[in-house]
Structures are given as C-alpha cells and as structure tokens.
Specification:
Length: 1050
C-alpha cells in the first residue's frame, strides 16, 4: 500500500484527529516500527487524545469484525483492495504499539526540542545537564540579572554610561525616571522579538525601511522660527474665518514648544486642519493646495503653503528620527541584558521553552549569544536516522522559528530516493488564533509551493470541509457570515485579509444530516440584557438536566469572571465554572490581608500594610501597643526563617478561620497550597513571597456536567452540544495588533525590518510606512476573522449569538456590524425567552428548540469481551542503587528530623551549587560568584577560602590539552546487572584519560576518606562505561572544602 506525503487543510469539525490516527494506524499495518514514527502537536492534552484515539480504534477493530472492516475501509485508498488487511493485522499492530510504548515519540513540539537539545548540550554552550525554569524561576532569574546590571560594583563605568544612553534613546524623549521598571517593560514587550532576530541591522535601520533613501530630511532652521514665519503669513490670509484662524493659531502655538517624542497634536486627536495637511503633504508646495472646512474650500498663499509643508516635513523627519533611535535604544538595552542573562542563566543550563528553537535553529544557521553550536548537518544526520515518518498537528500554529528546526529533517524525508519515508501535516489556517505569539498560517502556502515543485504525486494537498461536528442549522449561520467576500471587503479597508480568507474558504457541509439543531442571532438593548438573556437561554436549554455540554464563549478573561459571577447569582441551581485564569492570592480580602501581614512584618515603616491589617479580623490577634506590635510582627519574620511560609500561613488562617465565609475558606486552601509551592524553592525572602503569590494563576477545575464560561482561545479544539456567544462588542476588525515594536515581514515570512511606529496619521504621510500600516491592519483583520470562526464552530447542535442592537449612526466595522450585514435580511421580530421572558430581536433563525432532548449515554456492550493478558517482558527489571547513598544513615527517621543534619545537608548543597558555577579559574569572573553571596553566605565564604588555597586552585586551571568539562552531570548506567545512578560533581575528560572530582563539605575532612571509597569506585566504573575509557586511566579526587584538603583515591 503506497502512503503519500500529505498536507491537509481541515476545517473545524472535519476530522483532523480522525485523519491523524488513521495515518498512524496505516503506517503500523504496513509494517512500520512504531518507534520510527514521530507525531507532534502543541499540548499534552492533544497528544494524549491522539494516542488514546489510536488505541481505541485498534482495540475496537480487534474485538469487532464490523469495526475492523470499517477501519480497513478508512485507511485503504481507493485503488487498494480492502481484502489485504484483516483483524489479525490490527491485533499485531496493537501488540507492537503496546510493546513499543517506552520508545514512542508521540508528544509536544516542546518535548521534542528538549530531546534534541539534550543530544548536543555542550555543543550549544550549555553546562551539560539543563533544566526548564518555571515562571517563578524565570522571573527571579531575570530580576537577578537586572539587579546585577544596576549594581555599580558589577558593571564598569563605560558599560553603565552605555546603558544609560540606550535607556535615554529607548524612552523616546519621555521622562521615564523609573529606569528599572522601564527596562523590565522593554523585556516584557520585546525580548521574544529580540530572541527571534538579534541582529541590529534589522532594528531601526533607515536603509532597510527606505531602500531608495530616506525621504524625510530635517531643515536647518529651528522649528520656532519656521512657526513664526507661518504666524506672520497667517495674518495675511484674509479669506479665513475666525474659527479657521483660531484653529491654525492653536496648531502653531503648540508646535512652538513641540519636541520629538511628544504628540504633534495640541488636542487628544488631530484636528480636521491638521489631518488634511498630513494627508496632502506629498502634493503640497506647488501653489495649488486648498483645504476643506465646514464643507467649503479654502485656498492659501504660496508662501503659507510652502512654509507649512516645509515645517510639517521637518516635524515628521524629527519624529521618525526619534522613532529610529528609540528602536536602536531598545535593541541596545536588550542586547546588554541578553549578554549577561546568557552568561549567568542560559549557559548555566537554566532554560525556558522559548530558548529551544532559538538555540536549535538560529537564523542563517549562525549560533546565537556566543555558542558555537554543532554542525547543522550533524544534528540532521543523527535525528534523521531515528525517524522515517513525520506527523505534525495544528500546523497553523507553527512559527517560522519552529519550522526552521524541522525543515532540514522534512527535506530529507521528501527527497528519499526510495520513497519509503513520509511526511503528513494537518491544520486549518482559518483557526490561526495564535499569530500574536508567532503562529504563521502562511506556512501552508510555503509548504505547498516547496514540495509540489516536483513531478508526479509525491506531495498531495487536501481540503476537508465536511463537518462531523456541527449540524446543518449551525453551519447555515457559519456559511452566511464567512461565505460572501463582497460583504467582508468592507471590513478590510486594504483588502489583503479578505483576499487571503477567500483563498482558503469553502462552503461547509454537515455530515450529520439526520441531526437537527438551532442557530439564532439575537440583539438586545444593552449589556445587562445580554447577560440576562444568557441566563434565560440556559434555563430554556436545561443543559444539566438534559446531560448536554454547554459553553459560554467570550473574548476576554475579565468578561469570563463577570459572567460567571452574574450567572451564579441569577441561576444558582446551575453549576457554572469559569475557564479563565484567576489569581486567588490577590482577588479576595483574605489573600490581601495575609499579604499585608507579611509586608508589615518585613517592613516596619510600611504604614499602608499595617493600616490594612488593622481593619481586618487579624487585628484581634495583634498587640494593642504599637511598640509591642512591631516586636510581634518581627517575630513573624523569624518564624518564616525557621519553618517556612506555609506553616506561618496555616497558623494565621486557623486563627481567623471561624470568621471566614465559604468563598474565603476556599481561597484560604488555595493560598496555603501556593505557600507550600513557594517553600519548595527554598527561599525565605518575604518580598519574593509577596510578589509570587499575587502572580499565580489558576483555572477552576471542571468536574461533572457544568456550564463552562471560557475565552475563544480556551475553546479552540473543543466541541459542545450548545454554545452561547454574548461578548462580541468591540472595535473595528481591521485594527492593528497593539505591539511595542512593529515587525515588517517579507513574503517568505522572514523579518524585513523592525521599528517603533509613529501614529497612523504620520504613517499615512509616508509611502513605505503607510504600506506597513496597511499590512498590519489587514493582518489584524485576518486574525479577528479566525477568532470569530473558532467561536462560531464549537457547537454541534445549538448556537446562540447575542449582541447589542446597532445604534443609529454607529459605523464601527466590528463583529455586531458584520453579523447584521450577513445575517439580518429584515428588521427581525421580537421574541421572549425563559421564565423571565427576556425580550430579544431575532435577526437570524434556523431550526427550533425541539432539538433539545435528554442525551443518552452510549453503552459499551462489547467491553466484556476484552480480556487483560500479561505481557512477557524481554528483560527483567534491574535493581537500582545510588553510590552516593553508601550509608544507610540517611534513611534513619531520627536523622531526617535532626535540625543539625538538615542544616548540614543544605550547606553541602549550597557549596556544590557555588562550585558548579566555576568553569575554569583563569576564566572565572569573581563578580559572578558574588551572585551567591546573598543567598548562600556561609557556602560562599567556604568556597572563597578554597579559591585562596593554591592546592585547590591548581585543579581549576584549564589544561593546555583539549579537555571536555562536566559539571553536576547526572548519570544512569547498568553495571553488573544493577542500575547505578548518581551525579558527577566535576569531571575533566581528556582524549585518553579522565579525572573525577567530588566535593565533600563535612567537617571530618581527610580522616573520613574511607567512607567515600566505595562511592568513588562506583563513579569510576560508571564513567568507564559511559566513555569507553579503561578504569585504570580514570583518577578520582576528593575535595574537602571545610578543611581544604585534596586527596586522590586509588
């Protein structure tokens, strides 16, 4: 059976997962080893559903001949005879799949990148093993680097001067005195962009923006002198009315004191006069310009026209120069930060998921941030041998950076001369709602062009429009909204979004012809009526009683919270759960009071926090005398240092527990969980704790049948029996996405240039910037259409869309206007819904409420046929031990509870952490070690003394011979039939020998060397097994850090 390379554009509900699972099964029954197939998607949930789908199909085919015949029909192409497969083939495939489960590569793209990076950590400049930081660790790492940069003891004078100058440029003339806050904001807004393109030639380069030359040249005259000439000429314009005269005077008064970075307008918006000047600037200066005011045309003198055009061109030139400098300044700041961050955090093996693709596939194959990186061919060669068949899911959310990682590997598959390897990807450009984080739906066109260039049928492109999710009534509404490009054109002023949409849109057809449903478009008078109508529709549908899944889909997280609170009050008998993120540490009085208590304990002068807790139930448990109260608060800080935050939090919650309502008790449990999570970091810093708690985000757990309220992004990929859309108000569809910096892209998706854009009126005066602004607005429009499409295609049977009635004179080209233009064929009729008889105007109607029936639960009559069998293992489990655990003392309960033992253990770990940061002494920046002084003062002092000892230091001087360095390198090897696990503190690997260094922080010193011999012998065997070296050429040394002794163990 020939399996063709395939790209599928799968519309919502058309069976994307169905196609993926069938493809995998098709490969299995054709004899492909499961471990030779790699299938990648974006979430663990999707990967789990994919694997579950494969197992379910194969299991059903094994126990049911009817299911087997159906599956054969599904996976067999029309030209292949279905008799070539049988139930036994599916049984064999299922058995091989289960036996190969540990070797399967069905997961997320991030997990695959993690695996790739693990093959070449040293080549990518990492210190061997690496870890993925959670959000708290990432923020703390960034803060540490910023603090280090702002510490005058760490950064030399010239570097500080450069940083201050870059900040001045990045602030664009605005007085941003909070340097740290402004810097942090630039990191939030632009760091990801810098990671994608770090080369300065793309940032604010006028030659890239205007290849023919910058048309905006500043005048030599000072601005106020040009304005004075205009004011004199204004007096001579005898055809101006007083209103026009005053209008020009206000403009000129403002421009006298104007400076780049400030608004060109004297009011919040440009006046009619100002807008006309900017619009006509390209034609001004010829002596024929005129402007319109109150529907009447006015001419001006030649001098007035020329001087006005000259002055405005000068202002625009100054503003554009300022924007270019601002862009350069931001780039310089990010570059300075990245240099230190890369050295202190990333190269120490502390990564985030966003680091992966940047390290694995830097642009133009040029390793970033100083890493040399492995040869790209070496990566592709080692990975290419592992996988023969690639399956990519949700391809519309793949970014260009991610695709660069795959591209070479997929090219190898497509160029396989024997045709024994395949590529399969599926997605839907119409559901591309993650463009704001890099998802690029144009990759579909790129792949189609790239791989269809050859002759024959090597690459097949399919489009699926038949929906197995939604009934015809729902799809009637969807088709009406998105199917007429003539109507959509009005919402995309520059036409590019609608042109892209029309290329990928095809009418949707329902495969559920026997099912009935309902689709309504309803309008009400105001926002309160919209929420009330949602409640009445839920009463009408009775989702809980009928066993129907129901979702209320909105645009923003804050609306989720508002609707959940409203529905819980309006229909308390219906369980309602919000799928938005909540911050339980800061959204309730208890959390705020506890945070104020900790702040007051850490900062005696914090009057606000103290005043806050004095008006809460906490006051009853504090001394009345102010001096005694301060001593008591200080004792809280000491308690934190002794036993951690969770124990202190639990104590205070128990004190006021009886006074808490049900909601506060729920939040109390969540606050305590967050305190335990923070304690796991080992930190005792109250300021860090009070920053950590308010930033933690959660979603309500969904259990059983409930009404779910969620955003469009949360709803993507889900199906519900009925959906209600009550949150579609907003601005025009073709609004640019709000970004700190605009990124102009080339047709192939690569970056052309980056710039802090001026306002739209100034952009309109320049051809190149106007084009970029138009492209940005069309991109925004396309993404809005995608979001709307996702929202409208989640329902299988009932779709209810609610907006406010359009106001007379309202001309915003937003979702409600689009719904009116595509669905409302007349003025509609008034109907009443629910017990409250909510009044609404029906502008579109298909079907009726008769579709609502109790949902039957399918029975699994064949489940009794399934028998569990024990699988014989080829290899028995091996026993496992850790050589560093040579003594059983560590298991004794009395030692686990011994404060002295715990402190010694913590101290030893801290010493190891400081030594881990040292690569070679001659390359060591002593200031780098200072980072550990605050957190680990005792360990820092101990290591500092060691580095003053020559017998120690000589072991840290980089050898002349080529050497590979391992630091804190974990290992798992089988030796003599036993699994041996451990961590090498430090290893020096040479071409024909090696040296193991193990740090010991106990106070016994060299007198206790016999206690460690067994451990080092195991380490020597493990290293020999890992490297192929003979044990005789591997030296082992013990470094006793307290007594500063270096002993070699034979």
């Amino acid at each position: 059976m020939k399996i063709v390379n395939t790209l599928i554009r799968a519309s919502a509900g058309s069976g994307k997962t169905f196609q993926l699972t069938n493809r995998f099964i098709q490969l299995l029954v054709n004899g492909v080893p499961p471990e030779k197939v790699i299938a990648l998607t974006f979430t663990k949930k999707a990967a789990g559903e994919f694997f579950e789908g494969i197992l379910t199909k194969l299991s059903n085919a094994v126990i049911s001949n009817e299911e087997a015949e159906l599956l054969i029909k599904e996976i067999s192409s029309s030209e292949n005879a279905s008799t070539t497969l049988s139930q036994s083939d599916f049984a064999s495939a299922l058995r091989r799949l289960i036996e190969s489960m540990p070797q399967l590569s069905l997961g997320t793209i991030d997990s695959f990148f993690h695996r790739m990076l693990g093959l070449f950590p040293f080549e990518f400049g990492l210190s061997g093993e690496f870890e993925i930081m959670n959000d708290l660790e990432r923020k703390r790492a960034r803060s540490n680097v910023l603090e280090w940069m702002f510490d005058s003891r760490q950064v030399d004078r010239s570097a500080r001067a450069a940083m201050i100058e870059s900040h001045r440029l990045a602030s664009a003339g605005k007085d941003k005195r909070d340097f740290v806050l402004a810097f942090a904001r630039h990191l939030d807004d632009c760091h990801e962009l810098f990671m994608r393109e770090s080369s300065g030639k793309y940032w604010g380069d006028p030659f890239r923006i205007w290849p023919e030359g910058n048309p905006w040249i500043k005048q030599r005259d000072e601005l106020f002198k040009m304005v004075e000439v205009l004011e004199s000429e204004l007096e001579l314009q005898d055809n101006f009315t007083k209103q026009i005269y005053n209008g020009w005077s206000k403009i000129f008064d403002h421009l006298k004191t104007w400076a780049p970075g400030k608004s060109l307008y004297h009011s919040s918006k440009p006046t009619v006069l100002f807008s006309q000047v900017l619009r006509d600037l390209s034609i001004m200066g010829g002596g024929e310009w005129e402007f319109i005011h109150s529907n009447k045309s006015y001419t001006v003198s030649d001098l007035f026209e020329c001087q006005l055009a000259r002055m405005m061109r000068h202002c625009i030139a100054c503003e554009l120069e300022n924007k270019l400098l601002q862009t350069k300044g931001i780039h310089n700041l990010l570059g300075m930060f990245e240099e230190h961050y890369d050295d202190q955090i990333r190269r120490a093996g502390r990564l985030t998921f966003s680091d992966f693709p940047m390290l694995l596939a830097p642009k133009n194959n040029s390793p970033i941030f100083g890493a040399r990186g492995p040869n790209r061919l070496e990566i592709d060669y080692r990975l290419d041998a592992q996988f023969d068949h690639w399956l990519l899911d949700e391809f519309q959310d793949t970014s260009r950076v991610q695709w660069r990682v795959f591209e070479g590997l997929i090219d190898e598959v497509m160029q396989d001369p024997e045709g024994q390897r395949t590529f399969f990807c599926v997605g839907d450009p119409k559901q591309s709602i993650y463009q704001w984080r890099g998802g690029d739906p144009t990759l579909f066109d790129y792949l189609e062009t790239r791989y269809q260039a050859g002759d024959g049928d090597e690459f097949q492109v399919q489009s699926l429009e038949k929906s197995w999710r939604s009934c015809s009534e729902v799809l009637d509404l969807v088709n009406a909204v998105f199917g007429d490009p003539l109507v959509l054109n009005a919402y995309d002023e520059y036409g590019m979004a609608v042109e892209r949409w029309s290329r990928i849109w095809k009418k949707h057809i329902s495969a559920r012809l026997k099912d009935t449903g309902q689709a309504l478009y309803l309008t009400v008078e105001n926002d309160t009526d919209r929420f009330m109508l949602v409640a009445d529709l839920i009463r009408e549908i009775r989702p809980i009683e009928n066993g129907l899944s129901c979702a209320v889909i909105v645009q923003k997280n804050e609306v989720v919270r508002n609707i959940v609170n409203f529905l819980r009050g309006e229909i308390p008998e219906v369980p309602v759960v919000g799928e938005s993120t909540i911050r339980p540490g800061a959204d309730n009085p208890l959390g705020s009071a506890l945070l104020s208590l900790f702040r007051a304990a850490a900062h005696p002068g914090d009057g606000f926090s103290l005043g806050h807790i004095l008006i809460t139930p906490i006051r009853k448990h504090l001394p009345e005398d102010s001096n005694e109260r301060q001593v008591f608060l200080r004792s809280i800080q000491n308690r934190v240092y002794e036993c951690g935050f969770s124990e202190v939090v639990e104590e205070w919650i128990s004190k006021i527990f009886d006074e808490l309502d049900e909601f506060s008790r729920w939040r109390a449990a969540q606050f305590l969980d967050m305190a335990r999570q923070f304690d796991e970091t080992g930190l005792r810093d109250i300021d860090e704790f009070t920053r950590f708690i308010p930033e933690q985000e959660f979603t309500d757990a969904v259990e059983g049948n409930v009404v779910q309220v969620m955003t469009v992004h949360k709803a993507k990929g889900l199906t519900f029996d009925t959906t209600i859309l009550p949150d579609l108000e907003g601005k025009r569809l073709d609004e640019s996405r709000r970004e700190a910096l605009y990124t102009r892209k080339l047709p192939d998706g690569e970056i052309d240039w980056i710039m802090a854009m001026p306002n739209s009126d100034i952009c309109g005066a320049d051809v190149r910037l106007k084009q970029a602004s138009n492209e940005s607005r069309s991109d925004g429009c396309f993404e809005k259409l995608c979001q709307f499409y996702v929202a409208l295609t989640r329902a299988s049977h009932g779709l209810y869309v609610i907006t406010n009635e359009l106001k007379k004179g309202g001309d915003s080209l937003n979702y409600p206007r689009l719904l009116n233009d595509t669905l409302a064929k007349d003025k509609g009729e008034i109907q009443f819904f629910g017990k409250r008889k909510s009044e609404a105007k029906v502008l579109f109607s298909r079907g009726s409420f008769n579709w609502i029936k109790p949902k039957s639960i399918p029975s699994h009559k064949d489940s009794s046929k399934i028998k569990l069998v024990k699988i014989k293992r080829k290899y028995e489990y091996t026993s496992k031990h850790s050589p560093s655990s040579h003594s059983e003392d560590h298991k004794k309960p009395d030692l686990l509870l011994d404060d002295v033992a715990i402190k010694a253990l913590d101290h030893g770990q801290a010493v190891h952490k400081v030594f881990e940061s040292i690569e070679w002494f001659d390359e060591l920046s002593l200031t780098k070690l200072q980072l550990f002084k605050a957190d680990y003062p005792d360990a820092f002092a101990e290591v500092e003394k060691c580095l003053e000892d020559k017998s120690f230091v000589k072991n840290f001087i980089k050898p002349i011979d080529l050497v590979q360095l391992w630091r804190e390198r974990a290992f798992d090897v089988v030796i003599d039939g036993e699994m041996v696990s451990g961590v090498f503190d430090r290893v020096h690997l040479f071409s024909d020998n090696a040296e193991i260094i193990d740090f010991k922080s106990d106070k016994i010193g060299g007198a206790g060397v016999k206690l460690h011999i067994s451990q080092l012998q195991s380490y020597r065997k493990a290293l020999a097994k890992l490297t192929g070296l003979d044990e005789s050429v591997i030296k082992c040394k013990l470094f006793f850090t307290y007594s500063r002794e270096v002993l070699e163990v034979e």
